[in-house]
Amino acid sequence: QVQLVESGGGLVRPGGSLRLSCAASGYIFSAYSMDWYRQAPGKQRELIATITSGGSTMYANSVKGRFTISRDNAKKVVDLQMNSLRPEDTAVYYCHVFYTSRDLWGQGTQVTVSS
User: N or C: which end of the chain has fewer CB within 10 A?
Assistant: First the structure.
């Protein structure tokens, strides 16, 4: 059974940093692209970062230059390093994989950026 479990969210002041982690299990992790999405209150869920099986990365313009996605295939973990956080980064952050024609999600982790 595929499982994605996020951790690392919390409350941080503007300009601060957080590192999110997503632990994956139940499938061949190294073979699949992994994504981070976020959903702010009253807004649609948006894709913010992708890392392919080969390690290529892509970012939404809203986070480019501030966030870094990485993966450790041996540990089956995908991380999101978030720097220079802004109040508008406040959202629930989700790990995602498109596996066997299905969108699979973790439970999400709350990130709140506030002074």
Answer: N
For the chain, the farthest-separated pair of C-alpha atoms sits apart, in whole angstroms, at 42
Give the C-alpha separation, 23 to 4, whole Å: 6
pLDDT computed for residue 108 by the predictor: 97
CA distance 41 to 83: 21
Q: In a 3-state reduction of DSSP, which class is residue 30?
A: helix
* C-beta separation of 76 from 21 below 8 A: no
- Where in 60-90 does DSSP place strands (E)? 67-72, 77-82
Q: Which residues of the chain have pLDDT under 50?
A: none
- For residue 44, list its beta bridge partners: none
Helix (H) or strand (E) holding 47: strand 46-51
pLDDT of residue 15: 98
